[in-house]
Amino acid sequence: MTTEPPKPVTEIPLLAQVLGRVPSGVFILAIAGPDGQKTGLLASWVQQASFNPPQVTVAINKSRWFIDWLAPGTPLILNQVQKGDALLFRHFGKGFEPGSDAFAGVDSTPGQCGLPILQAAMAALEGTVTSLLDAGDHLICLVTLNAAHPVRNPAEFDPFIHVRKNGLSY
Question: In the CATH scheme, what is the code of domain 24-154?
């Protein structure tokens, strides 16, 4: 009896469809480099990972130009996007080149680490990268949270949840 080798994942459209239905929150990640340059990006692979200490994971594509900024001890802020928000989603979804001011024209106040808390967000979570995990084409950052900054009443949050049609590409 002969057995066929398993098909590559890319040839299994059902896997792509089902994987794409795994929901995740939508956030604007704010981060600074060693020289103090700040940038922001739309982060849609953010999941809670621990109760004690409070931690989340953030998946970032390795092709991002600032990927070298991510190391244990790096502070960051995750600004939680509200359902139906077009302003933040459109502004940060396009990405930014090195040297561009990602936060120009976006109202913000500084968090404890000096990174922006966006006033159009529902809330912001502030933390530090604890560890990194190589995950194929992405880098998974485990972030230990140390502060929450509600911009709106937490009881009234209606977060932007992202569900994809294809779990094998953006």
Answer: 2.30.110.10
